[in-house]
Amino acid sequence: MDTSMTPTRRARDYLSDIKPIWCPGCGHFGVLSGLTKALAYLERPNHEVAIVSGIGCSSRLPAYLDCYGFHGLHGRALPLATGLKLARPDLTVIVASGDGDGFSIGGNHFLHACRRNVDLTYIVMDNAVYGMTKGQASPTTDPDWAQSALTPHGTGIPAFRPAAIAMSSGASFIARGFSSDPHGLSELIVRAILHPGFAFVHILSPCRTYRPDDLSTWKKGVHPYRPAADPLASSPSTLTVFEDGLGLGVLHEAVPDALARAAPSSGVAEQESALARIEAELEPLHR
Amino acid sequence: MTQPETIKIDIRTMSAGEVLAHALELTQDSADRYAQLQACLEAHHNEAAAATLRQIVTYSLATAEAISRNAALEQLPKIAPWQLCWRCADLIAAPAEAAATPCDHQISASELLRLALRREHCALSCFQDAQAEVASDASRKMLSEIALRQSDQIAQLEKLLAAAETTDEPAPADLDPPNRPD
């Protein structure tokens, strides 16, 4: 702990004047709290942070933060954020999504963002339901959840396992947090932001209105993640077969291969030369 | 900065500055969260609960303000949120009865006050337990003052609850009810 420094930023410095209209008791309040605490701890200037989101309750996040924000198309937050990060590598780019937006509509982008390893922090607020459209089963809903008129006997489809799939796809940082513990969550978000590559933070964030059952199950069930003693056991199959989906903490962290192989950043002259080559290649298309 | 701080703070060796930083974080964060809930209940047209929360926010801010008056006397350390020692034990891994706490758009003023009181009593316990544990006289004195302020706030909330229990009306009909399947 640094005892010599008085903190210069507070979590509330990152909140906008727009008040959240999530339902009372919504887990997303805890995520907002954890995120603003993380940014305050890192003392990131507001103008050096950008939040990109898709569509859904979770994706309202950019409106509630006083930094750059982009509320994009359904499921397309990751490609938008990738473009932004490539154009402005100096920005801390955080992507906010939900289980429907991120794992269903944007599922394909999730796989490739893990693989490409662009330096983004991807927080997915998973409430295992489509809340904004009033309670339909999402990719992470258990197959026997029968509370929606659309799936009166449950979906019968095994639930998506985000951490295992992220690991299979090559994500170099995977963590799981719980919105009822915003302080613990802030540490995971800080570590994700500091990670030099794609960092995926899966957040259990209960929907009070349509999945109150999850709130009580998760509150009683979450526990610190216990990594396997055998390092070889740290694999997608471990996360799929042996993990109950309620372990909190950093599940996986590796030195990103892509970054390890990357050449030192090129100078302005090299960038201009590369741009000239690309323009020359495109020239015939303009004729 | 490459890695976040991971050193665990020991309550017994806390300085007065660390005590103050903890208390400020706890009270200011609490006021912010009450204010968010107030705005949210307003958005859901529950005026009675929103008005009660407005009062709770006023009390919370007054407690935070009273505590922060000591800040001028101390060099406040920077403490990572996850290093804070004071977390209510039932926030995660809650017992069954705590998990069933009602908090939705139709919550009544008295239910809200009971919920707030439970959290504020939890904060008071944190202050009192720490007071019994800290080694430094300055820290103990600081905690004693903070606990006193906290007790005042609890007394104010209890008065509000007594009044609300006599005037509580049935949960208001919401103007935008969720479309729950039967």
Number of strands of chain A: 8
Helix content of chain A: 25-40%
Order of helices and strands of chain B: HHHHH
The ordered H/E elements of chain A are: HEHEHEHHEHEHEHEHEHH
What's the average pLDDT of chain A? 88
Overall 3D geometry of chain A?
Answer: globular
* Distance from first to last alpha carbon of chain A: 62 Å
**From the helix content, strand content and strand pairing of chain A, which structural class follows?**
alpha/beta
Give me the number of helical elements of chain A: 11
Low-confidence stretches of chain B: 92-96
Spans where pLDDT lies below 50 across 5 or more residues of chain A: none
Number of helices of chain B: 5
Largest interface: A-B, 50 and 49 residues
Described by strand count, sense and barrel closure, the largest sheet of chain B is: none
Q: What radius of gyration of chain B results from the CA coordinates?
A: 18 Å
Outline type of chain B:
elongated
The amount of beta strand of chain B, in percent, is under 5%
On the 0 to 100 scale, the average pLDDT of chain B is 82
